[in-house]
Write a structure and sequence with these properties.
Largest sheet: 8 strands, mixed
Structural class: alpha+beta
Radius of gyration: 17 Å
CATH class: Alpha Beta
Helix content: 25-40%
Strand content: 15-25%
Number of strands: 8
Shape: globular
Number of domains: 1
Number of helices: 5
Distance between the termini: 38 Å
Length: 185
């Protein structure tokens, strides 16, 4: 029994190390083209995206949700103009290969990929989902700050918003104000 457990632990550790290496190396799905405009934006699959779900506020209060940020392999980034502008204002710009490499390294170094996907979300509270695409599979972690804070998600979100975006331009908020189901598949 003990030998079987040790073998399972070694296998799990080896898979987690490979997963971290794949994240850092940029393994994604075959659909690596970033969106340029229109319907293609919903069909493309970023290697990382953050999505905010609003708190339940009652029937007469608007609930604002949407993509916080998404980054594609070719360096395209779409993010809300600010963390307060989710679902309302978005920019699209470019990241350099060095910035993409640094982002992948930061995510790998955070160790989030070593945690079981999922998370703790408080009932009726706002939440943030972070999805990584590794070996073509989307894995999501979530938290409800400040009620159930995951410092790794928080750090990655802060890092993405601190990246200097080259040639930012305003884009229509409509494609990003709902959940991007096509990105998750």
């Amino acid at each position: 029994m003990k030998r079987a457990i040790n073998t399972k632990v070694r296998l799990t550790a080896a898979l987690m190390i490979a997963w971290g290496a794949a994240l850092h190396a940029g393994c994604t799905t075959g659909d690596q083209k970033a969106p340029q405009s229109g319907a293609r934006e919903n069909a493309a699959k970023p290697f990382i995206f953050l999505y905010q779900t609003p708190a339940f506020t009652g029937p007469n209060t608007p609930r604002v949700s949407g993509v916080l940020a998404a980054v594609w392999d070719d360096g395209t980034i779409v993010r809300s103009a600010s963390e307060a502008a989710v679902g309302k204002e978005y920019i699209r710009g470019r990241l350099t290969p060095d910035q993409i490499g640094a982002l992948r390294q930061f995510v790998t170094d955070s160790g989030l990929h070593l945690q079981k996907p999922g998370g703790n979300v408080a009932v009726d509270a706002a939440s943030v989902d972070l999805t990584l695409r590794i070996y073509g599979a989307a894995r999501t972690w979530a938290h409800s700050p400040p009620h159930t804070l995951n410092p790794k998600i928080e750090a990655i979100q802060d890092y993405v918003f601190a990246i200097k975006v080259t040639a930012p331009e305003s884009v229509d908020a409509a494609p990003y104000s709902g959940y991007p189901h096509a990105w998750y598949k």
